[in-house]
Amino acid sequence: MALVRFQTENFRNLSSAPVSFSPSFNLLYGENGSGKTSVLEAIGYLGLGRSFRVSRHQAVARHGEQRFTVFGGLDQGLETFGSDSSGGDDLVHRLGIGRDLSQKETTLRVDGVSVRSLSSLARHLPVSVIDPGVFDVVAGGPGKRRQFLDWAVFHVEPSFGSVWQQCQRVTSQRNQTLRNGRLDEAMMRVWDRQYAALSAQISEARSATFHQFKTAFETLVQEVDVPWTDGLKLELFQGWDISQSLESLLLNHREQERKVGHTLYGPNRADVRLKFQGRPVSETFSRGQQKTLVILMKIAQGMVLSALGKQVTFLLDDINAELDEGHRAMLAQRLQSLRCQVFMTSIEHPVVDQLWPRGTAPDYRLFHVEHGKLTEE
Ligand SMILES: Nc1ncnc2c1ncn2[C@@H]1O[C@H](COP(=O)(O)OP(=O)(O)OP(=O)(O)O)[C@@H](O)[C@H]1O
Asked: Does the record bear Glycoprotein in its keywords (predicted)?
């Protein structure tokens, strides 16, 4: 599915005028501070339930306003091969997310009906962001790579979101018991059993998606011919040595966990380890190679979802500042062949011939952004 209708109220500096987007490429250009990132950020709210650039909802509500809303209309998009979206009014889903700052309340709506869980909204619009912060997937800590992997697992395995939430609840109860002065061993064993069962489900889902991701990644690096990836190894670490039972591992490390006061083994410690000749790529690859690697990993995720018939909406924020012309073209052409929906921002008017060989550009819409208003050209 693709986001073809869009409207916001009180979202940063954005105008509340409704906008129609292409189910394929949307190129947004405008000067600094015009509102390009805000458009992507608002789209991100529909697919992620939060901002991809700030942690507090307050920051995105227009100054002086107590409530903001984002609406999106989805059509069939390009996901069913051979039956492209008409671009007409055949909306398949209507999504809405609003936040009341004074009540500290988020409202979610799917097709006019209030829903409680964010996943009910987010599963309709798989949003993948490529902005300057994305390079932390390689350069940053394991949490960034877990987030990267879990985004795909969430869209591949329908039950993953709820199992993950249950596991978070059990982990926090387990941690509270660990922190109690006198350890209640009987209670710990109850938590251990529940935690181990949920961890096994999470690990299984992660492992299945990771396998698909790795296969897609290996295919991709062969096709785009990046010789410096020879010797690169992608491995999933599940958060403990899975040749051992998690329950007995926890029992054997009771004293260690009691001292630190939290759970040290399990899915919260998982990582996608990226190694080149046995050493972390963050220590061996150049900045440029690390950036290219993240882009290839993002495309490989797109391949996994695309193979399941899901259209990913990519938000590419200011990639001109991060990627050279050749890599930008590679990215645009790959996303075109995966039939993704793409929103791409730039300060300068985009040069379409630099992204696709002449005559091969997909259907795209071009928008000039000025003072928060989008004007189609
Ligand atoms: N809460 C808010 N309420 C009103 N305006 C805001 C709010 N937050 C930011 N702005 C303003 O919104 C404008 C748009 O910012 P945005 O980051 O979207 O611009 P941009 O076009 O992506 O700029 P750049 O090219 O510099 O990255 C800026 O002028 C900013 O000062």
From this structure: no
Residues 6+ apart with CB under 8 A from 105: 99
**CATH of range 1-126+311-377; options 3.10.120.10, 3.30.70.2740, 3.40.50.300, 3.30.70.141:** 3.40.50.300
Give the residue, out of 34, 317, 349, 373, with the most ligand 1 atoms within 8 A of its beta carbon, to mutate for a pocket test.
34
What is the pTM (predicted TM-score) of this model?
0.94
The domain locations on the chain are 1-126+311-377
328's CB contacts (< 8 A; 6+ apart) are 319, 320, 354, 355
d(CA 28, CA 350): 8
Record the tokens describing residue 315, joined without a space.
Answer: 């938000």
Q: How remote is the CA of residue 60 from the centroid of ligand 1, in Å?
A: 9
CA distance 300 to 96: 29
Tokens 């339930």 correspond to 49
| d(C-alpha 362, C-alpha 304), whole Å | 21
Question: Which is nearest to 221 in space by CA: 297, 158, 149?
Answer: 297
pLDDT tens digits, residue range 139-157?
Answer: 999 999 999 999 999 999 9
Measured in Å, residue 52 CA sits from the centre of ligand 1 at 14
CB atoms within 10 A of CB 208: 13
